[in-house]
Amino acid sequence: MFPSRSPDTLNVFMRTMRASDLDLVVLNENLSYQQPWSKRIFSDCLRAGYECWVLATKDRIVAHGVLSAGVGEAHVLTLCVHPDFRRSGHGRRMLRHLLERAVKRDATVCFLEVRPSNVEARQLYLAMGFVQVGERRGYYPAEPGSTQREDALILSRMLPL
Questions:
Q1: For residues 85 and 10, what is the distance between their CA atoms, to the nearest angstrom?
Q2: Where are the domains of the chain?
Q3: What is the dihedral of CA 10, 21, 75, 105, to 10 degrees?
Q4: Does the pLDDT value for residue 158 go beyond 90?
């Protein structure tokens, strides 16, 4: 585990995700989600030319995010902050960066899905101007030990920021 407040957290920088980052990105996913994205999914996103970004120190991935954009709209596909670095503004910084990239790609609206149970993420998205515009019933796979699939809340916000 990483210490929560190491000196390295002061030296984080945004950069595009590389194939060489994927093991650390997937590690963050596995630490954060019951149904994490696989290395192959991230590889496919890189190959497809999606906006794939990491917030990194010289030797760690603090956060990552993936955005697809086209025909006037964008979709935040994933945003993840390593558990040891949460509640330090890294998620907000990554989201803001993804939204800025969406604007550069001529998007006028951005969408995302979030689990109702992911209270911290919902709070971040609402604070960044997203509003709920819909719901997808049974969108997320059931948690281990449960047969109940979780709905997704569909959020959107107009761009630019």
A1: 11
A2: 7-158
A3: 80
A4: yes
pTM of the model: 0.90
Instruction: Please state which CATH class domain 7-158 belongs to.
Output: alpha beta
pLDDT digits 0-9 by tens, 44-86: 999 999 999 999 998 899 999 999 999 999 999 999 999 999 9
Predicted confidence at residue 128, as pLDDT, reads 97
Question: What's the angle, vertex CA 90, arms to CA 112 and CA 12, rounded to 5?
Answer: 130
